[in-house]
Protein backbone atom coordinates (compact mmCIF):
# COMPACT_ATOMS: atom_id res chain seq x y z
CA UNK A 1 0.00 0.00 0.00
CA UNK A 2 0.99 3.65 -0.25
CA UNK A 3 1.76 5.56 2.95
CA UNK A 4 3.37 8.79 4.11
CA UNK A 5 6.39 7.49 5.99
CA UNK A 6 8.50 9.26 8.64
CA UNK A 7 12.17 9.01 7.66
CA UNK A 8 13.83 11.20 10.29
CA UNK A 9 13.35 14.27 12.51
CA UNK A 10 12.81 17.42 10.47
CA UNK A 11 12.62 15.58 7.13
CA UNK A 12 9.53 15.72 4.93
CA UNK A 13 7.38 12.57 5.00
CA UNK A 14 8.18 10.22 2.12
CA UNK A 15 5.39 8.66 0.07
CA UNK A 16 6.41 5.01 -0.16
CA UNK A 17 5.02 1.57 -0.87
CA UNK A 18 5.05 -0.53 2.31
CA UNK A 19 3.41 -3.87 3.21
CA UNK A 20 -0.31 -3.78 4.06
CA UNK A 21 -0.98 -3.92 7.81
CA UNK A 22 -2.06 -7.30 9.20
CA UNK A 23 -4.85 -7.07 11.79
CA UNK A 24 -4.95 -9.25 14.91
CA UNK A 25 -7.94 -11.65 15.28
CA UNK A 26 -9.91 -9.13 17.38
CA UNK A 27 -9.24 -6.25 14.98
CA UNK A 28 -10.54 -4.86 11.70
CA UNK A 29 -8.67 -3.83 8.59
CA UNK A 30 -9.90 -0.50 7.26
CA UNK A 31 -9.32 1.15 3.88
CA UNK A 32 -8.61 4.74 4.88
CA UNK A 33 -10.92 7.14 3.03
CA UNK A 34 -10.06 10.42 4.77
CA UNK A 35 -7.31 11.29 7.22
CA UNK A 36 -6.80 14.67 8.90
CA UNK A 37 -3.43 16.30 9.56
CA UNK A 38 -3.08 17.11 13.26
CA UNK A 39 -0.77 19.76 14.73
CA UNK A 40 0.63 17.09 17.05
CA UNK A 41 1.97 15.23 14.02
CA UNK A 42 3.72 18.37 12.74
CA UNK A 43 5.56 18.63 16.08
CA UNK A 44 6.34 14.90 16.19
CA UNK A 45 7.81 14.92 12.69
CA UNK A 46 10.09 17.83 13.64
CA UNK A 47 11.21 16.46 17.00
CA UNK A 48 11.16 12.78 16.08
CA UNK A 49 9.74 12.09 19.56
CA UNK A 50 7.98 8.70 19.75
CA UNK A 51 8.71 7.96 16.08
CA UNK A 52 11.36 5.89 14.37
CA UNK A 53 12.22 5.72 10.66
CA UNK A 54 9.40 3.85 8.95
CA UNK A 55 6.67 5.10 11.33
CA UNK A 56 3.33 6.06 9.79
CA UNK A 57 1.41 8.77 11.67
CA UNK A 58 -2.26 9.77 11.36
CA UNK A 59 -4.81 9.40 14.16
CA UNK A 60 -7.80 11.32 12.77
CA UNK A 61 -9.33 9.09 10.16
CA UNK A 62 -12.36 7.40 8.70
CA UNK A 63 -12.48 4.39 6.45
CA UNK A 64 -14.31 1.42 5.02
CA UNK A 65 -14.01 -1.99 6.63
CA UNK A 66 -12.30 -4.46 4.29
CA UNK A 67 -11.58 -7.36 6.66
CA UNK A 68 -13.06 -8.53 9.97
CA UNK A 69 -10.95 -10.58 12.39
CA UNK A 70 -12.32 -13.96 13.56
CA UNK A 71 -12.58 -12.72 17.15
CA UNK A 72 -13.88 -9.23 16.37
CA UNK A 73 -16.15 -7.61 18.94
CA UNK A 74 -19.37 -6.38 17.31
CA UNK A 75 -21.23 -7.33 14.19
CA UNK A 76 -19.03 -5.79 11.51
CA UNK A 77 -19.19 -6.45 7.79
CA UNK A 78 -16.86 -5.46 4.96
CA UNK A 79 -18.07 -2.32 3.22
CA UNK A 80 -19.29 -0.54 6.36
CA UNK A 81 -18.00 3.03 6.77
CA UNK A 82 -16.59 3.92 10.17
CA UNK A 83 -14.82 6.61 12.17
CA UNK A 84 -11.82 5.08 13.93
CA UNK A 85 -10.84 5.63 17.56
CA UNK A 86 -7.05 5.56 17.21
CA UNK A 87 -6.32 3.08 19.99
CA UNK A 88 -6.06 -0.67 20.13
CA UNK A 89 -7.30 -1.74 23.56
CA UNK A 90 -8.35 -4.88 25.48
CA UNK A 91 -12.08 -4.09 25.62
CA UNK A 92 -12.42 -5.81 29.01
CA UNK A 93 -10.65 -3.72 31.67
CA UNK A 94 -12.21 -1.15 34.00
CA UNK A 95 -11.16 1.73 31.71
CA UNK A 96 -12.48 0.05 28.55
CA UNK A 97 -15.81 -0.71 30.22
CA UNK A 98 -16.08 2.90 31.44
CA UNK A 99 -17.53 4.28 28.21
CA UNK A 100 -14.39 3.23 26.32
CA UNK A 101 -11.79 5.24 28.24
CA UNK A 102 -9.18 4.12 25.75
CA UNK A 103 -6.32 6.34 26.93
CA UNK A 104 -6.17 4.53 30.26
CA UNK A 105 -6.55 0.91 29.23
CA UNK A 106 -3.37 -0.76 30.55
CA UNK A 107 -2.81 -2.51 27.22
CA UNK A 108 -3.66 0.49 25.01
CA UNK A 109 -1.52 0.94 21.92
CA UNK A 110 -2.09 4.13 19.96
CA UNK A 111 -2.43 4.19 16.19
CA UNK A 112 -0.23 6.70 14.42
CA UNK A 113 2.19 7.56 17.23
CA UNK A 114 5.10 5.33 16.26
CA UNK A 115 4.17 1.94 17.64
CA UNK A 116 1.28 0.99 15.32
CA UNK A 117 0.94 2.56 11.83
CA UNK A 118 -1.85 5.12 11.54
CA UNK A 119 -4.05 6.73 8.94
CA UNK A 120 -1.55 8.42 6.61
CA UNK A 121 -1.83 5.25 4.55
CA UNK A 122 -4.21 3.39 2.27
CA UNK A 123 -5.03 0.80 4.95
CA UNK A 124 -4.93 0.73 8.74
CA UNK A 125 -5.72 -1.60 11.61
CA UNK A 126 -8.60 -0.64 13.92
CA UNK A 127 -9.95 -2.05 17.18
CA UNK A 128 -13.23 -3.87 16.54
CA UNK A 129 -14.81 -2.22 19.61
CA UNK A 130 -13.25 1.15 18.80
CA UNK A 131 -14.94 2.15 15.57
CA UNK A 132 -18.26 3.92 15.10
CA UNK A 133 -20.50 3.46 12.05
CA UNK A 134 -20.92 6.52 9.84
CA UNK A 135 -24.41 7.19 8.54
CA UNK A 136 -24.73 8.11 4.88
CA UNK A 137 -25.26 11.75 5.81
CA UNK A 138 -21.73 11.95 7.25
CA UNK A 139 -19.11 12.22 4.49
CA UNK A 140 -15.68 10.60 4.72
CA UNK A 141 -14.16 14.05 5.26
CA UNK A 142 -16.47 14.75 8.19
CA UNK A 143 -15.71 11.25 9.42
CA UNK A 144 -12.07 12.30 9.70
CA UNK A 145 -13.15 15.31 11.79
CA UNK A 146 -14.76 13.12 14.46
CA UNK A 147 -11.54 12.53 16.43
CA UNK A 148 -10.59 16.21 16.94
CA UNK A 149 -14.28 17.03 17.53
CA UNK A 150 -14.29 14.45 20.34
CA UNK A 151 -11.31 16.07 22.07
CA UNK A 152 -13.34 19.28 22.07
CA UNK A 153 -16.63 17.61 23.07
CA UNK A 154 -14.95 15.92 26.02
CA UNK A 155 -13.45 19.26 27.13
CA UNK A 156 -16.84 20.99 26.99
CA UNK A 157 -18.44 18.08 28.85
CA UNK A 158 -15.76 18.47 31.53
CA UNK A 159 -16.92 22.02 32.21
CA UNK A 160 -19.93 22.81 34.36
CA UNK A 161 -21.46 24.79 31.54
CA UNK A 162 -24.80 26.34 32.47
CA UNK A 163 -27.28 27.62 29.88
CA UNK A 164 -26.44 31.19 28.93
CA UNK A 165 -22.89 30.89 30.29
CA UNK A 166 -20.18 33.36 29.28
CA UNK A 167 -17.35 31.37 27.73
CA UNK A 168 -13.87 32.44 26.65
CA UNK A 169 -11.96 30.17 24.27
CA UNK A 170 -8.22 30.90 24.10
CA UNK A 171 -6.95 29.83 20.67
CA UNK A 172 -8.95 29.07 17.51
CA UNK A 173 -7.04 26.11 16.11
CA UNK A 174 -9.08 22.99 15.33
CA UNK A 175 -9.55 22.19 19.04
CA UNK A 176 -10.53 25.74 20.05
CA UNK A 177 -12.94 25.87 17.11
CA UNK A 178 -14.41 22.51 18.12
CA UNK A 179 -14.83 23.78 21.69
CA UNK A 180 -16.59 26.85 20.27
CA UNK A 181 -19.00 24.66 18.31
CA UNK A 182 -19.82 22.35 21.25
CA UNK A 183 -20.05 25.19 23.80
CA UNK A 184 -22.74 26.80 21.67
CA UNK A 185 -24.39 23.39 21.21
CA UNK A 186 -24.47 22.98 25.01
CA UNK A 187 -26.26 26.28 25.47
CA UNK A 188 -23.53 28.81 26.23
CA UNK A 189 -24.91 32.32 25.77
CA UNK A 190 -21.63 33.96 24.79
CA UNK A 191 -18.66 32.19 23.27
CA UNK A 192 -15.85 34.66 22.63
CA UNK A 193 -12.64 33.49 21.01
CA UNK A 194 -9.24 35.05 21.67
CA UNK A 195 -7.00 34.43 18.66
CA UNK A 196 -4.16 36.33 16.96
CA UNK A 197 -4.78 35.09 13.39
CA UNK A 198 -7.49 37.09 11.62
CA UNK A 199 -8.50 34.15 9.38
CA UNK A 200 -9.11 31.95 12.40
CA UNK A 201 -11.17 34.64 14.13
CA UNK A 202 -13.41 34.63 11.04
CA UNK A 203 -13.63 30.83 11.12
CA UNK A 204 -14.69 31.00 14.77
CA UNK A 205 -17.68 33.11 13.74
CA UNK A 206 -18.63 30.45 11.17
CA UNK A 207 -18.60 27.86 13.96
CA UNK A 208 -20.87 29.84 16.25
CA UNK A 209 -18.60 32.20 18.19
CA UNK A 210 -20.53 35.26 19.31
CA UNK A 211 -17.43 37.43 19.36
CA UNK A 212 -13.69 37.43 18.74
CA UNK A 213 -10.76 39.23 20.32
CA UNK A 214 -7.29 39.87 18.91
CA UNK A 215 -5.06 39.48 22.00
CA UNK A 216 -2.21 41.15 20.12
CA UNK A 217 -4.18 44.35 19.70
CA UNK A 218 -6.80 44.39 22.47
CA UNK A 219 -6.93 44.04 26.24
CA UNK A 220 -8.64 40.66 26.54
CA UNK A 221 -10.39 41.30 29.91
CA UNK A 222 -12.11 44.52 28.88
CA UNK A 223 -12.82 43.33 25.32
CA UNK A 224 -14.48 40.19 26.72
CA UNK A 225 -16.62 42.22 29.14
CA UNK A 226 -17.75 44.44 26.28
CA UNK A 227 -18.72 41.40 24.18
CA UNK A 228 -20.34 39.29 26.90
CA UNK A 229 -21.44 41.74 29.59
CA UNK A 230 -19.22 40.33 32.35
CA UNK A 231 -16.14 38.18 32.99
CA UNK A 232 -16.06 34.57 31.71
CA UNK A 233 -17.75 31.82 33.73
CA UNK A 234 -15.61 29.26 31.93
CA UNK A 235 -12.27 29.65 30.14
CA UNK A 236 -11.02 26.94 27.76
CA UNK A 237 -7.24 27.08 27.22
CA UNK A 238 -6.73 25.52 23.77
CA UNK A 239 -3.21 26.68 22.87
CA UNK A 240 -0.67 25.15 25.26
CA UNK A 241 2.06 27.74 25.72
CA UNK A 242 3.51 28.93 29.06
CA UNK A 243 1.64 31.79 30.71
CA UNK A 244 -1.84 30.96 29.46
CA UNK A 245 -3.05 29.19 32.61
CA UNK A 246 -2.17 32.34 34.58
CA UNK A 247 -3.87 34.42 31.88
CA UNK A 248 -7.02 32.29 32.31
CA UNK A 249 -6.87 32.64 36.12
CA UNK A 250 -6.61 36.43 35.71
CA UNK A 251 -9.63 36.53 33.40
CA UNK A 252 -12.12 34.05 34.88
CA UNK A 253 -14.79 35.24 37.32
CA UNK A 254 -14.59 34.31 41.02
CA UNK A 255 -15.66 30.65 41.45
CA UNK A 256 -15.27 30.28 37.70
CA UNK A 257 -13.82 27.34 35.87
CA UNK A 258 -10.78 26.77 33.66
CA UNK A 259 -10.47 23.76 31.40
CA UNK A 260 -6.99 23.15 29.99
CA UNK A 261 -6.97 21.32 26.65
CA UNK A 262 -3.83 22.83 25.06
CA UNK A 263 -0.75 20.62 25.32
CA UNK A 264 2.10 22.65 26.82
CA UNK A 265 5.39 20.74 26.59
CA UNK A 266 7.39 23.22 28.68
CA UNK A 267 7.38 24.13 32.35
CA UNK A 268 4.86 26.79 33.25
CA UNK A 269 4.38 29.13 36.22
CA UNK A 270 1.10 30.31 37.66
CA UNK A 271 0.03 31.79 40.98
CA UNK A 272 -1.86 29.37 43.26
CA UNK A 273 -2.60 32.34 45.52
CA UNK A 274 -4.55 34.11 42.77
CA UNK A 275 -6.39 30.89 41.86
CA UNK A 276 -7.20 30.34 45.52
CA UNK A 277 -8.37 33.91 46.06
CA UNK A 278 -10.86 33.41 43.23
CA UNK A 279 -11.70 29.82 44.29
CA UNK A 280 -11.10 28.78 40.69
CA UNK A 281 -11.78 25.23 39.50
CA UNK A 282 -8.88 24.16 37.28
CA UNK A 283 -9.37 21.01 35.20
CA UNK A 284 -7.26 19.22 32.63
CA UNK A 285 -9.08 17.44 29.83
CA UNK A 286 -7.32 14.66 27.98
CA UNK A 287 -8.59 12.95 24.83
CA UNK A 288 -12.06 11.32 24.93
CA UNK A 289 -13.93 8.07 25.38
CA UNK A 290 -15.37 5.82 22.67
CA UNK A 291 -18.85 6.98 23.69
CA UNK A 292 -17.91 10.53 22.57
CA UNK A 293 -17.35 9.17 19.05
CA UNK A 294 -20.89 7.77 18.98
CA UNK A 295 -22.24 11.05 20.34
CA UNK A 296 -20.34 13.20 17.84
CA UNK A 297 -21.25 10.97 14.88
CA UNK A 298 -24.90 11.07 15.98
CA UNK A 299 -24.95 14.87 16.08
CA UNK A 300 -23.10 15.14 12.74
CA UNK A 301 -25.48 12.66 11.16
CA UNK A 302 -28.50 14.58 12.39
CA UNK A 303 -27.03 17.83 11.10
CA UNK A 304 -27.03 19.29 14.63
CA UNK A 305 -23.40 20.39 14.33
CA UNK A 306 -21.41 21.23 11.21
CA UNK A 307 -17.64 21.61 11.37
CA UNK A 308 -17.19 21.72 7.55
CA UNK A 309 -15.90 25.30 7.69
CA UNK A 310 -12.81 23.97 9.50
CA UNK A 311 -11.74 21.87 6.50
CA UNK A 312 -9.60 24.14 4.35
CA UNK A 313 -8.64 21.63 1.68
CA UNK A 314 -8.18 18.03 0.69
CA UNK A 315 -5.00 16.58 -0.82
CA UNK A 316 -4.03 13.21 -2.29
CA UNK A 317 -0.80 11.28 -1.67
CA UNK A 318 1.00 13.26 -4.41
CA UNK A 319 0.31 16.54 -2.65
CA UNK A 320 0.36 15.27 0.91
CA UNK A 321 3.99 15.72 1.93
CA UNK A 322 4.14 19.31 0.65
CA UNK A 323 0.82 20.14 2.37
CA UNK A 324 2.13 18.64 5.61
CA UNK A 325 5.30 20.79 5.47
CA UNK A 326 3.31 23.92 4.56
CA UNK A 327 1.21 23.54 7.70
CA UNK A 328 4.37 24.05 9.78
CA UNK A 329 4.44 27.69 8.63
CA UNK A 330 1.83 30.18 9.79
CA UNK A 331 -0.90 30.35 7.19
CA UNK A 332 -4.61 30.37 6.66
CA UNK A 333 -5.15 26.59 6.52
CA UNK A 334 -7.08 25.02 9.37
CA UNK A 335 -7.71 21.30 8.84
CA UNK A 336 -6.11 19.67 5.77
CA UNK A 337 -7.34 16.21 4.88
CA UNK A 338 -5.73 13.40 2.94
CA UNK A 339 -8.57 11.96 0.94
CA UNK A 340 -11.29 12.63 -1.56
CA UNK A 341 -12.12 16.11 -2.81
CA UNK A 342 -15.41 17.48 -1.47
ZN1 LIG B 1 -5.02 15.07 16.62
ZN1 LIG C 1 -8.79 -2.18 28.35
Task: Provide an overview of this structure.
Helix 3 (140-158) crosses helix 4 and helix 3 crosses helix 9 (290-301). The protein has 2 domains: 2-133 and 307-338, Medium-chain alcohol dehydrogenases, catalytic domain (Quinone Oxidoreductase, Chain A, domain 1); 151-284, 3-Layer(aba) Sandwich (Rossmann fold), CATH 3.40.50.720. Strand 13 (234-237), helix 7 (244-251) and strand 14 form a beta-alpha-beta unit. It contains 10 helices and 17 strands. The chain has helices spanning 39-47, 94-97, 140-158, 174-185, 198-206, 220-228, 244-251, 272-277, 290-301, 317-326; strands at residues 2-5, 14-17, 27-36, 61-68, 81-84, 87-88, 109-110, 123-127, 131-133, 166-170, 190-194, 211-213, 234-237, 257-260, 281-284, 311-315, 335-338. The protein has 342 residues and is an alpha/beta fold. The strands form 4 sheets. Strands 3, 4, 5, 8, 9, 16 and 17 form a 7-stranded mixed β-sheet that branches. Strands 12-11-10-13-14-15 form a 6-stranded parallel β-sheet, sandwiched between helices. Residues 89-90, 92-93, 95-96, 105, 107 line the site of one zinc ion.
Amino acid sequence: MRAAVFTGAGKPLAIERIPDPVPEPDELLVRVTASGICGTDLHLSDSGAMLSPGSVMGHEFAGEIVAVGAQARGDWRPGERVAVVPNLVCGRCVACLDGGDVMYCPSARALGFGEIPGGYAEYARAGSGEVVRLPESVSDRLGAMVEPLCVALHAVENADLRGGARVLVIGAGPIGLGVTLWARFHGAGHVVVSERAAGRRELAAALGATGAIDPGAQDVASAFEREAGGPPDVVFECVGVPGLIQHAIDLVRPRGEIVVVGVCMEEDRWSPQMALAKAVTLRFSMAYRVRHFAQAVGMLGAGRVDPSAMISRTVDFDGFSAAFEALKQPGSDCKVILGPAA
